[in-house]
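During the no-cost extension, the postdoctoral fellow (Dr. R.K.) reprocessed legacy sequence entries with the updated structure-token encoder. One reprocessed record is reproduced below for audit purposes.
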Amino acid sequence: MNRVTVYTRAACSLCVAAEADVGRICAELRVGWDTVDVDTDPELRAEYGDRVPVIMVDGREHGFWRVEEPRLRRALDPS
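Re-encoded structure tokens follow.
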């Protein structure tokens, strides 16, 4: 089960950076993650389109535009 989802879109430089950060952090912590292109679904586009990338942890919005690495690490490894 993936714990982190990054809502993204094509040709988004912030999305590329967020995916790289999330990928690195999740690999280090051995946490599953995936991406969803908001432009493939009108409801997702309406909800998240002006804030991509949006980072979700366990189905809840964690942040948007940039990855706050210390905060994401705490959310994924609270010990």
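Residues 13-29 form the longest helix (17 residues). The first strand starts at residue 4 and ends at 8. The remaining legacy entries will be reprocessed before the final report is submitted.
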